[in-house]
Amino acid sequence: IDLDTARQELEEFIPHLKNISDNSIKKMAGRDLMRFKEFKKQGIAVKFGRFTQKENKQIQKNVQEFLSLTGIDSAEKLLFTSRYPEDKDTIHRLKTEHCFCEKISEGIPRPWRLIYYRARKMFDPNNYKGRYTKEEKEKLKKYQALHGNDWKKISELMSRSNLSVAMKFSEIKSPINYGPWTKEETRKLMNAVKEVMRKKLKTEDPSSLFSLDQSNTDFWIDREQLYQPLPWTEIETQVGSRYWRQCKQKWNSILTRRLSRGQQLYRGTNGLKAKINLIKRLYETRAEDTSEVNWDELSKAIGDVPRTYVQSKFYRLKVSSVPLWKRKTFSEIVDYLYEKKLPELEEKL
Q1: Mean pLDDT highest for which of 232-241, 260-269, 302-311?
Q2: CA angle at 225 for the pair 15 and 14, rounded to the nearest 5°
Q3: Residue 52 has what DSSP assignment?
Q4: Which of 32, 106, 213, 270 has the fewest other C-beta atoms within 10 Å?
Q5: CATH for 134-171?
Q6: What are all long-range contacts of 135-141, with beta carbons under 8 Å and residues at least 24 apart?
Q7: pTM (2 d.p.)
Q8: Over the stretch 43-64, which tens digit does the pLDDT of each residue have?
Q9: How big is the chain by its Cα radius of gyration, in Å?
Q10: In the chain, where are the structural domains located?
Q11: Residue from 37, 50, 47, 45 nearest 10 by CA
């Protein structure tokens, strides 16, 4: 189908389609559109975000079945074919003959590209190699100077995953400060976030820029509910003294504090009511994994606070109330809270 038709049909399934390039749209039309329509017939929505345990198991099953079907002797050869130049042509032929795209994504209502990246992460033996040694850090700096941000090339030279070398270099190149944030650093972070949000608003809704300019920072934060994805490497560059993960953690703590200020949500009688409400709503979702919970909706229902705020309260609740919680699945933890902790809280209330 032509590009305009593909875009129009995919809009039903992909909420952020306007941010996707034409070339990616064409690929999705070929790999995903028919799959999405089949899932729709079954009443299954296309998913994004963190993969569930069930989906991870399905990916493992799909990969193992494809290996058995083709005779390729390892998942690494299948998913990282460039590491085996002598077998490359044979593997590519087998993948084409046996419909690799369809087989690897079978039973998983997500875009093929996300499934493929997840499979690569799961089956990459270079992903779990522990801390970087001093020698590896020096090599990484040298390779980056030679090859720029060609993380694929650098990952092959270092036998580490693409993501691992990219993230580690981000840490190395930043003048890392592990102490408390200064007022100046916090000001830079706030300005950086405001600047990237200004760009976003300018693209999506130019009329909203006036209210952004006229508002004070606290109102702007409350209005935008900025616990959505942000370009953290860009923000890291503007802050200058912290790497991207520190910036993200600090921003989340600022956002949580500002949005929950004045809301005595988890204290006294209100605290008991909030915990009771949280347990009941989690139980009603029947979710098998934490990634299946719509934390945004849950947060609004409980007190219109960021999802990170409610997630942290759930974490404290399970740690303090559920024995051996680390050995239990998400659904087992919720069931225990519902059956054991909920009656105790209701009686106390």
Answers
A1: 232-241
A2: 5
A3: P
A4: 213
A5: 1.10.10
A6: 136/160, 137/168, 137/172, 140/165, 140/168, 140/169, 140/172, 141/169, 141/172
A7: 0.51
A8: 888 887 778 888 999 999 999 9
A9: 24
A10: 3-123, 134-171, 183-260, 268-348
A11: 37
